[in-house]
């Protein structure tokens, strides 16, 4: 059950908080560790990180798709969120062959596990 109504950010990324965390906040410039499952609109999983070492990147520095840089801002460690990312904030017209077709809307279930 979602705890908040979905919120659409400028640019079209939709965020839905499933769990609000209680740890450090994800801010631009911070190195953060994530767990995630990425799906296409049809439900097909194209990528995931659910065990082992979390996926780390520096938020707001263009190391990931724009939808992640925008949609993960403000999360707290332990928080879980669903990101619905329009193609323009994902992989755009080119897609990411062979798994992500051109102009694909992406749905990510993300969990913030660490902020450094």
Describe, in short, the structure shown.
It comes from Thanatephorus cucumeris (strain AG1-IA) (Rice sheath blight fungus). Keywords: Isomerase, Rotamase. By secondary structure, this protein is mostly beta strands.
Describe this structure in words.
It is a single chain. The protein is globular and about 35 Å long. Strands 1, 2, 3, 4, 5, 6 and 7 form a seven-stranded antiparallel β-sheet that branches. The chain is mainly beta and 116 residues long. The protein has a single domain (7-115), classed as Chitinase A, domain 3. The N and C termini lie far apart (29 Å). 5% of the residues lie in helices and 37% in strands. It comes from Thanatephorus cucumeris (strain AG1-IA). One of its GO terms (cellular component) is nucleolus. Its EC number is 5.2.1.8. InterPro entries: PPIase_dom_sf, PPIase_FKBP_dom. This is peptidylprolyl isomerase.
Number of DSSP-assigned strands: 7
The ordered string of helix (H) and strand (E) elements is EEEEEHEE
User: Which class best fits the helix and strand makeup?
Assistant: mainly beta
The CATH architecture assignment turns out to be Roll
According to CATH, what is the topology? Chitinase A, domain 3
Distance between the termini: 29 Å
What is the averaged pLDDT score?
96
Pfam family, one: FKBP_C
EC number: 5.2.1.8
Organism: Thanatephorus cucumeris (strain AG1-IA) (Rice sheath blight fungus)
Keywords: Isomerase, Rotamase
